[in-house]
Structure formats: structure tokens, C-alpha cells
Amino acid sequence: MPSSELCFPQAKATTIKEALVKWEANTGQKVGEAKAVKLYGQIPPIEKMDASLSTLVNCEKLSLSTNCIEKIANLNGLKNLRILSLGRNNIKNLNGLEAVGETLEELWISYNQIEKLKGIHVMKKLKVLYMSNNLVKDWGEFVKLADLPSLADLVFVGNPIEEKYSSEGSWIEEATKRLPKLRKLDGNPVIKQDDEEGEGES
């Protein structure tokens, strides 16, 4: 079922607080102590990242995928967050990430509605960005990823810009030219001709 079908107005949305109560009951763990918390695919879905998230003080990996979240919010209390999974939601922009800009290493945000990458530059430690199947369509947005000093692994398939240049056969070349530090693009190692020759000589 396409994710949009999950998001028709229906029963009252599940709140983060309710989802956390359920999660504690299912796992026997305490929210404030847990390092990994999975709140994906709630029924009815979560629509808001509300202030209850601030109780996840030890959380390193948070999964909120397959819900109906429209905005990234309330991450201020998550001082240890390293991996944030928000795939298959209705997120339209990257505002709200500044709260975890100093710690987040992986952002999984495929299958959303993101067209612009404004705000991504705050992610000083981000190494992995999975954002396939979004709406990014021009290089002016794509090059904002060059502001991420640690980015090594990027998945960008299914964005209009990738589809356009892949059909012309120049996607990998054009993308890696703009992001020379990438090691992996769309699951494939980036092979740099010059590097290999240089290494042979040293």
C-alpha cells in the first residue's frame, strides 16, 4: 500500500507518548534508559513528533518510519542520538535537525516529500544519508550536501534529478563531481580513477 493511503484522516493519531507506553510494555525496557527505540508503523499512525521525545535521553537510534509525520521536531533532549529513521512519512523539509546536528551520524529519510535541502548543513557528523524517493530536482539543492564534512554514503535514487541524469547515463559522474568526498553512492562504491593512480605512486 502506498504510504499516502495510510494518511487519510481516520481515527485519532497515536501520540508519541502513547507509542512509548506501548513500547515499554512490549519490550520491558524503560524509555529513559533505552539506546534503541522503535516506534515505526503505529496504528493509527503518529502525526507529530511531540515533546514526549525528550524523555529519550539515552537513545542512540530512533525509528519513526512508516507513520504520517509532517515535521521534524522536539529532538532537543536526544543528546546521544546517532541514527534517526524517518522513512515513509510526509516530511517536506529538514527543519528541526539542528537539535541533533552535533551527534547525528545517520539519517534515513527515504520516501518523503523533500524538495529542498535547506538546513542540512547543521549535520556536522552525518556520515550516512539515505534519501531515495524524495522530490529533489536541481543541482542547486543537491550541492548543499557538500556542506556535510563527514558525508561518505549517500542514497539518492528516485529523486527527479537522479532519474533525469541516470537516464542520460551521467548521474554518477555528475553527482560525485559535486560531492568529491563520497565513498558510496546509491549502494555502490565510488571509484576514483585519480586516487588509485596516486596511491600506486606513493
From TrEMBL:
Q: Where in the cell is it found?
A: Cytoplasm, Cytoskeleton, Cilium axoneme
Hydrolase recorded as keyword: no
Q: Which PROSITE patterns match?
A: LRR (PS51450)
Q: Which residues form a coiled coil?
A: none
The yes or no answer to whether the keyword Cytoplasm is present is yes
- List the GO cellular component terms: axoneme; dynein complex; microtubule
Sorted alphabetically, which keywords does the UniProt record give?
Answer: Cell projection, Cytoplasm, Cytoskeleton, Dynein, Leucine-rich repeat, Microtubule, Motor protein, Repeat
Q: Name one GO molecular function term.
A: dynein heavy chain binding
Q: Which Pfam families match?
A: LRR_4
A biological process term (GO) from this entry: outer dynein arm assembly
Give the UniProt family note: Belongs to the dynein light chain LC1-type family.
Protein name in the entry: Dynein axonemal light chain 1
What is the organism of origin for this protein?
Answer: Acipenser oxyrinchus oxyrinchus
The primary gene name is: Dnal1
